[in-house]
Amino acid sequence: DDMNPAMTVHPLFYSSELLKHTDELIYVPMFDMQDFDPSDFKSVYGLNFIAKMPALLHADTTYVPTERLKEEYVKALVEFSAGDTDESFWNERIIVEDYLNDASGQNISTKTKKTILYYTDVAPIALNGAKSIDKIRSSLSLLKESSDRLNVIWCASQNMKSVLNSKDCPDGKGLYEDYLEIVHEFNNEGWGTYTEMISSDQIEAIDAYAGNPSPYAHFISYNKKPVMILKDYDN
After folding, report:
1. Region 134-152: what's the mean pLDDT?
2. Cα(172)–Cα(178) distance, integer angstroms
3. Which of 15, 90, 170, 228 could form a disulfide with 58 if both were Cys (CB 3.0 to 4.6 A apart)?
4. What is the C-alpha separation between 9 and 82, in angstroms, rounded?
């Protein structure tokens, strides 16, 4: 809904709105989630970004792929509700269903290249200025060298224009022009894909992550795939 800083849908499709137009609201997580590991900090931390969300609170039924995940969802939601609900309430609403397997139970992907998501957030640019612009250039240069064996998706935060052109960012207009120049060069060279939104199909196909912190990083890490959080700028 409106709780994710990196991706959303039109507000008319938030779960609070959908709830007004249906007798039963069903929520199916958009990401392929591996089983929960309580000893793994990434699993524990990532649960905050997938369980304690409005859609879970509004849905009449939520599907998860394993019993272990259901247990953790129930525990997290009981805690999140601060005494307003108990385990029996969520046990009825959360259903275990292996909804991700196709009929053959096999992975039908035929891709030969690995796919990496490079994510750029507006905050480092607004805070560090030209240093972060240079960091983007150097990161893309390294990715270009590996583009013969990598599918590169460059995703930037959707509020790049509004933040850098706001009165709170005095040097932002010049930084935004420099940023657009990099985007223009990247698109013209054609060795990667630029976007401001990642679909559920794309996120499932991503093999590794590099860039600034984001919810995408949490989801990809949660699925036991490599995540590299880069410095905001090079010294």
Report:
1. 93
2. 10
3. 15
4. 28
